[in-house]
Amino acid sequence: MHKDMGGTLVLIRRLAIIFVLVLAYAYYQMIGESAALAQVGLISFAAVAQFAPAFFGGLVWRRATALGAMMGISAGFLVWFYTLLLPSFADAGWIGRGFLDEGLFGIGLLKARTLFAMEFNPLTHGVIWSLLANVTAYVAGSLMRLPTPIERVQATSFVARDIQSGSGTGFKLWRTAVTADRLEDTVARYIGTDRARAAFEGFRAQQGQIGTRGGEADVRLIRFAEHLLASAVGVASARLVIALMLERHSTHARGAMRLLDDASAAIQHNRDLLQSAIDNVDQGLAVFEPGMTLICWNSTLQKFLGLGSDLNRVGTPITEVLDAFLARTASGKAAADDRVRRIALTHEPFRERRLDTGQVFEFRSSPMPDGGVVVTVIDATESVLAAEELQRVNESLELRVKERTAELTRLNEALASAKADADAANLSKTRFIAAASHDILQPLNAARLFTSTLVERMKRSKDGELVRNVDSSLEAVEEILSALLDISRLDAGAMKAENAPFRIDDILQALALEFGPAARKKGLTFRVVGSNLTLNSDRKLLRRVLQNFVSNAIKYTREGRVLMGCRRHGNMVRIEVHDTGPGIPEEKFDLIFQEFQRLHTDGDGTSGLGLGLSIVERMAKVLEAPVHVRSRLRKGSVFAIDIPLAEGVKPAAAPQRPRKVQPPALSGAFRVLVIDNERPILEGMQLLLSGWGNTVQTATGLDEAIEALAQWDGKVDMILADYHLNNEDGISVIRTLRTRARRPIPAVLITADRTPAVADLAVAHDVHLLRKPLKPAALRAAMSHVAVRAEV
């Protein structure tokens, strides 16, 4: 949501007025005794006069440009400052009079009140020379470059030399020289042939002229054409097109049309860029303006809903879109009003099944700042079919239990065997999902690279907000997939605890640095109490558990503080995270550890997937460490985990206070070799890294990487490689390239493989490890890190 800036603008205006008044009063106090008030006013009018050349020149001179206007005003103010303002301070005794009596730098021709030995009244002298410098710089700056398309469009609005003033339009209410066919062809140049033909046929049908395309265009048809053009190129441009077409004797119509083509091309470029971005999203997207009419959509939406070409146009009401889709569903058109209410008012998600294809689509809507609505459509067929299949299996199982209750004793062994088979099948499915994480995350990684590049390139564009919304949606999908894959690996037993002694303070201080900015952003006090104890557990799994605790505490605490520290109980250490949040009812302690379960507290608007504590519970089982929860409503909550002390290890020295560590920044452009077997990822990485100023070469395997290394004569600054390639792995490719280059080239391994074996292999070969899907900020930090390590 955009913040209302009205109050801020009013405050800025008031502060600006006060500031100008203070400056004026200070100036009067400084020179009031040496100059009359009328003289001060004349000096002020001379300053205001510097805007006159640019103002009047823009009304009469088509060749004028914004660059010329800025140069003219700057030059005029500079001469005004030297010939009028500075002398007033010299007369009052605040500065020396050398530039008045001897000239600037001792040059007599540059005396402030007698420039080039020309003597006038001081005020007349300053005005003449400042306006002369202003006009000269204005003309020179305008002639330095050709006007841009937008400058030519604006010039046409004020200096209409292409349309002769006395000729009129040549259009009479009872007769015109323009035919309906020519009018339709002109409109088709801007909105497309199919759309223009459909619009004009619809208009003729309303007027009772079905099948009639020839003849002269009347007033109603011309006004209808102007409205169509206005939806594509704007009202002013639409009127210009119609006026030029009706002009019988204009000798400059070709030039004016070329000018309009430039403006239309600029508008079309922005529309094409936006359309290209949303067309590459797997979800169906549609944007409806406050009047619930369609203004933007992508091809995926058209494919999902089966919309015809007559509905794919700007201005289509949401009711027509839903009627056309619901006609293919079991709900039918009768449910259209309820679906419109859910999309526009309550924003409740709903699902519909297409009868012709059997696909099930989930509709979700989000409000826009201006009152419009963004609608996303997801293909939920697989999940719905899985749920229906599960329901059928459950119903079948209940029926079998009822029918064979009498034979229960005899079938116990067979039932146990069937249950074992079902568990094995479920475990096999879970293991498959965990093992297939690379293929699942590859396309998402490529999409995040492309959207991140678009976000950086369109920060200040009017379409930047939409691209950032797309990037945020992909980030949410990434979080869901990562969480589900972690759950799959935990359920499949692929994640094992690797216990070893370590200082707990290392984790505590790292979390203090990681979450400190997020806490300060929300206005919370985040404090970490250091500890010199040494624990025996899996360092990585414990850190992830504590990360979830701290993240939830900051997310659900509106005000107050978050505290993290340790308490020793015999041979165990309880690591606790306290917050002053809304608290959790005791009867819901078990609910919060279930998947996709979140407690909505007072509509605070916090976002989340409801998977964090579910993952914590599974990791705690792997660590064999109990998790504890204490909470009081409206007072806060405490999440804790018990970890054993390391035996035979003395406590370390008292921990030092954490220092603020700034991540290293990229100090310059690198020559980066990117290796991945997926072309979309290579393209996305090349766009992203090139946008940071790096020189990039890509390769899909070892042979192409060796060729790229040879092209750069072995002078590669950094290697970014995927682990799973076609016929080799990333570590072996990096090792081969280092051998050929005869030096340890800095390298980063980017992989969706989360097994400890890959991580150990990367550490053994001095390769930095990043997980997919890749975050641009993490990649940039990793590149800076390995670059700094290479320099040390």
Biggest sheet strand line-up: 2-1-5-4-3
Query: How many distinct helices?
Result: 27
Strand share of the residues? Answer: 5-15%
Radius of gyration: 36 Å
**Average pLDDT, all residues:** 77
Helix amount = 40-55%
Task: State the end-to-end distance.
Answer: 46 Å
Q: Spans with pLDDT under 50 lasting ≥5 residues?
A: 161-175, 248-253, 657-665
Task: Please provide a written account of the structure.
This protein has 792 residues and is an alpha/beta fold. The chain is built from 27 helices and 17 strands. Strand 9 (561-569) and strand 10 form a beta hairpin. Helix 8 (180-191) packs across helix 9 and helix 14 (318-326) packs across helix 15. The longest helix has 28 residues, at 408-435.
Notable traits:
alpha/beta, five-stranded antiparallel beta sheet, 792 residues, five-stranded mixed beta sheet, single chain, 27 helices
